Amino acid sequence: MTPRFKSGYVALIGKPNTGKSTLMNALIGEKISITAHRPQTTRHQILGIKTTDGYQCIFVDTPGIHDNNKKLIHRYMNRAATSILSDVDLICVLLEVKYFNKDDEKILNRVKDFDKVVIVLNKIDQISKQDCLPIMRRIAEYASGREIVPVSALEKENLDCLETIIISRLPEGVPQFPDDQITDQSMRFIAAEIIREKLFRLLKQELPYSITVSVDHYKEEADLVRISATIWVERKSQKGIVIGKNGSLLKKIGTQARKDIQRLVENKVYLQLWVKIREDWADDEQSLAAFGYSDANQSH
Ligand SMILES: Nc1nc2c(ncn2[C@@H]2O[C@H](COP(=O)(O)OP(=O)(O)OP(=O)(O)O)[C@@H](O)[C@H]2O)c(=O)[nH]1
Ligand SMILES: [Mg+2]
Fold first, then answer.
1. What spacing in Å lies between the alpha carbon of 17 and ligand 2's midpoint?
2. Beta bridge partners of 116
3. Whose alpha carbon is nearest atom 23 of ligand 1?
4. Distance CA 292, CA 32 (A)
5. Rounded CA gap, 96 and 177, in Å?
6. Which of 76, 255, 58, 36 is nearest to 175 (CA)?
7. Is 210 in the pocket of ligand 1 (CB under 6 A)?
8. Cα 113 from Cα 92, distance rounded (Å)
9. Among 24, 162, 293, 296, whose Cα sits 20 to 30 Å from the Cα of 184?
């Protein structure tokens, strides 16, 4: 008898910076979700869909769960990370091998009543095999007998094994999305995210956290995609920093973002960037809604 088709949702959760987005991109084989060396890069739930002859696995990338609830946007991000837990078929909790601490323990505690949990120990490329074992033993104390899978999302180590475990836990069912669809997000959204990624990577200190990006125009022409986007900052002083001396930083952001978007749309891209101020947008309900940070936009 041939095995039945499997289909289900798999949440990737964990503390900020553990490699959730990197892992989702590696499992899908496409860059859907942006990544950066800073915590709190991802702000929304983002689906990454992998479909084969045997299964459709719908990964849900989420913002890192954190204790900073100072601004409305932080509360939105924490809701985006935790609101799906009871709706998915499997929860993968990502831990970073070098930095397992109380914050991870809290997250493990949060999922202790869920049946379907796999613990993914990421970034094993950063330590020796010898050093990995005692850490796995320590984590096992908090794991309530759940499977712990060591991987490197960046180096694509042991991902086959993780995938096999994930698929074995998916329920039988029909696909939820067409087999050529890889995400629920629009190209418009992904373009805005790619611009935000460059800002996260190129700007120093706290500034990236004061920034959001909106795509105002997105027009596909025969041999060109025309995009006009606005980088929103919270203060006047931040605008100058984003633009840089003689516009040098803004130019760099634009060039890097354009190259990535071109790769994704497989077409030439004309990207126009503006920088505007919307005071305290990250703590203002109306601004957040206008910029797409609204619970109604959560993917699941
Ligand atoms: N060495 C190493 N670095 C990794 C690995 N996986 C991810 N990273 C790096 O860790 C940083 C954070 O990765 P992300 O994928 O953005 O982490 P995240 O959990 O999505 O972070 P948030 O969205 O902020 O919660 C990036 O600089 C990645 O390149 C890994 O397996 N090994
Ligand atoms: Mg992320």
1. 7
2. none
3. 42
4. 18
5. 31
6. 58
7. no
8. 14
9. 162
Tell me, in angstroms, the distance from the centre of ligand 2 to residue 102's CA: 20
Nearest CA to ligand 1 atom 30: 123
pLDDT in tens, 46-78: 999 999 999 999 999 999 999 888 899 999 999
Confirm or reject: Cβ of 62 under 6 Å from ligand 1.
no
Q: In the 3-class helix/strand/coil scheme, how is the chain assigned residue by residue?
A: CCCCCEEEEEEEEECCCCCHHHHHHHHHCCCCCCCCCCCCCCCCCEEEEEECCCEEEEEEECCCCCCCCCCHHHHHHHHHHHCCHHHCCEEEEEEEHHHCCHHHHHHHHHCCCCCCEEEEEECHHHCCHHHHHHHHHHHHCCCCCCCEEECECCCCECHHHHHHHHHHHCCECCCCCCCCCCECCCHHHHHHHHHHHHHHHHCCCCHHHHCEEEEEEEEEECCEEEEEEEEEECCHHHHHHHHCHHHHHHHHHHHHHHHHHHHHHCCCEEEEEEEEECCCHHHCHHHHHHCCCCHHHCCC
Sheet holding 212-221, edge to edge: 212-221, 224-233, 269-277
| pLDDT tens column, 156-204 | 999 999 999 999 999 999 999 999 999 999 999 999 999 999 999 999 8
* Residue-range domains of the chain with CATH: 6-169 (3.40.50.300), 187-297 (3.30.300.20)
Residue type, 153: A
78 lines ligand 1 (CB under 6 A): no
- The predicted-structure confidence for 73-126, as pLDDT tens digits, reads as follows 999 999 999 999 999 999 999 999 999 999 999 999 999 999 899 999 999 999
Q: Answer yes or no: is the C-beta of 126 below 6 A from any ligand 1 atom.
A: yes
Task: Evaluate whether 15 touches 149 at the Cβ level (below 8 Å).
Answer: no
